[in-house]
Design brief:
- This protein is α/β, with parallel strands linked by helices.
- Helix content is 44%, strand content 13%.
- Helix 13 packs across helix 18 and helix 18 packs across helix 19.
- The protein starts with a strand and ends with a helix.
- It binds uridine-5'-diphosphate.
- The site of uridine-5'-diphosphate (UDP) has 20 residues, from helix 1, helix 15 and helix 16.
Length: 482
């Protein structure tokens, strides 16, 4: 019999491509033929990592200029808010080239990002199941669904800052209207922006798809894994944490990077080797977040005043004003030996798993949150946009392995307004003292559960097997109908 062939089509954003490569590796490790479809400038993210040669990479053109985007733009991390409609337009134009690849590859299943809602129809054209990947937690998926169904912010809130309870969830979770996406506030048909429309279509596509792959594990959020399937009726397979499939140093060092920069990694890993266990806090806000210059200064001062050692990653383009000299005067000299600022891309999982790392300041992107869980470190949660305010609640209120920095405002354009005192206090709270030790021991216990979930016989290991078996029998059944 022909081996099962699964074709993956991730959104052109690091937070979607990185877990997709991990998923493909997991499928490949079980003998499944895997193909990833991506675009020229994103391809190196999949190919730099030379250990994944068994994964077939197909490159299709990204219609940058045709969609009115500046030359060289192919990734969500490169766009400003005003480019979003054109970026969405470009992704819609990918339908035809994807169909061409499906025609040539003839896979048995299409795992496509929910941000390609049209992929369900495309899969149907080829008579294959479409599985959706949204890249977030069960918790956030349930919270978003409750918000969509009950709109508590539209019926009850009297002010932007008055908390409301998200209805029909296993825990009493409160948010304010300020902390949710603008898309949630205004669902009038005629005032929908391209992006809001895409979000609604993405939810519908999740419902219409064959099922959903979730990068999570049962013991992390059992009530929400059950709620998602039993209350919201989704067919879901949890197969994570997918980052744990990277066991070799090179795999972790290259993950998400478009160039192999092992030397740089060695520099900061050596620096960490000279530090005591749990004595350094890692600060990183993912691949999209942007800050004002004044916010970057507040972070610097908050870290300095906390008295803790740190590694702080500031991505290229992470400063809204494009100003290179944003650090407070003399900061790097004062922090010599005590703190490192990495400008660009860091090997996050390698850093997080180093024994010197004792805490993580995160924007609560789901990949980062889960990587923090896998490392067993308490977190300072600093959500900014997307579903990050939901993930914060999971970390701080349900799992109780983190403290919030006090972020109040959902904003996808630029983060501002968190003061140095709040940063200093939150950092101290997760690094030193009794409360920190309690959070650390809960985080370490969850790390153990994460590792067991992906080991032979673990819940994620079994779900991946079940999914592969189901797809294989589905294909046999469909083939017999021909
Ligand atoms: N990441 C990394 N190095 C960096 C920044 C980010 O390896 O310097 C990785 C991180 O490990 C995670 C992904 O990029 O896997 C970011 O995804 P997440 O969902 O956390 O946030 P997003 O970038 O989508 O906001």
């Amino acid at each position: 019999m022909v081996p099962l062939h699964v074709l993956f089509f991730p959104l052109m954003a690091h937070g979607h491509m990185i877990p997709t490569l991990d998923m493909a590796k997991l499928f490949a490790s079980r003998g499944v033929k895997t193909t990833i479809v991506t675009t020229p400038l994103n391809a190196p993210i999949f190919t730099t990592n030379n250990l994944c040669t068994e994964i077939n990479i197909r490159v299709i053109k990204f219609p940058t200029l045709e969609a009115g985007l500046p030359a060289g733009v192919e990734n969500a991390g490169q766009i400003s808010d005003d480019m979003t409609p054109n970026f969405v337009r470009a992704t819609i134009m990918l339908q035809e080239p994807l169909e061409q690849v499906l025609q040539e590859e003839q896979p048995h299943c299409l795992v496509a990002d929910i941000f390609f809602p049209w992929a369900t129809k495309v899969a149907a054209k080829f008579d294959i199941p479409r599985i959706a990947f949204h890249g977030t937690s069960f918790f956030a998926a349930c919270a978003s669904e409750s918000m969509r169904l009950y709109k508590p912010h539209m019926t009850k809130f009297s002010s932007w800052t008055e908390p409301f309870v998200i209805p029909n969830l296993p825990h009493q979770i409160e948010l304010t209207a300020m902390q949710i996406a603008v898309a949630e506030h205004d669902d009038q048909e005629d005032s929908q922006t391209d992006f809001n429309k895409l979000v609604s279509e993405a939810i519908e596509c999740e419902l219409a798809s064959y099922g959903v792959i979730v990068n999570s594990f049962y013991d992390l959020e059992p009530a929400y894994a059950d709620h998602y399937s039993k209350v919201f009726g989704r067919k879901a397979w949890h197969i994570g944490p997918v980052s744990l499939c990277n066991t070799e140093f090179e795999d972790k060092a290259c993950r998400g990077s478009n160039k192999a920069s092992i030397n740089e990694h060695e520099y900061y890993l050596n620096w960490l080797n000279s530090k005591k266990p749990n004595s350094v806090i890692y600060v990183c806000f993912g691949s999209i977040a942007k800050f004002s210059t004044s916010q970057l200064c507040e972070i610097a001062m908050g870290l300095e005043n906390s008295g803790q050692q740190f590694i702080w990653v500031v991505r290229k383009g992470g400063n809204q004003e494009g100003n290179e000299n944003w650090l407070p005067k003399g900061f790097e000299e004062r922090m010599e030996g005590k703190g490192l600022v990495i400008r660009g891309w860091a090997a996050q999982v390698l850093i997080l798993e180093h024994e010197a790392i004792g805490g993580f300041v995160t924007h609560c992107g789901w990949n980062s949150t889960l990587e923090g869980v896998c490392a067993g470190v308490p977190m300072v949660t600093w959500p900014m946009f997307a579903e990050q305010f939901f993930n914060e609640k999971l970390v701080t209120e349900v799992l109780r392995i983190g403290v919030g920095v006090g972020a109040q405002q959902w904003n996808s354009a630029v983060t501002d307004g968190v003061m140095r005192e709040a940063i200093e206090e939150a950092v101290r709270r997760i690094m030193v003292g009794e409360e920190a030790e309690e959070m650390r021991s809960r985080a370490m216990a969850m790390k153990g559960k994460a590792i067991r979930a992906v080991e032979e016989g673990g819940s994620s290991y079994c779900h991946l097997n079940a999914l592969i078996e189901e797809l294989s029998s589905y294909c046999v059944l469909e083939a017999s109908k021909i």
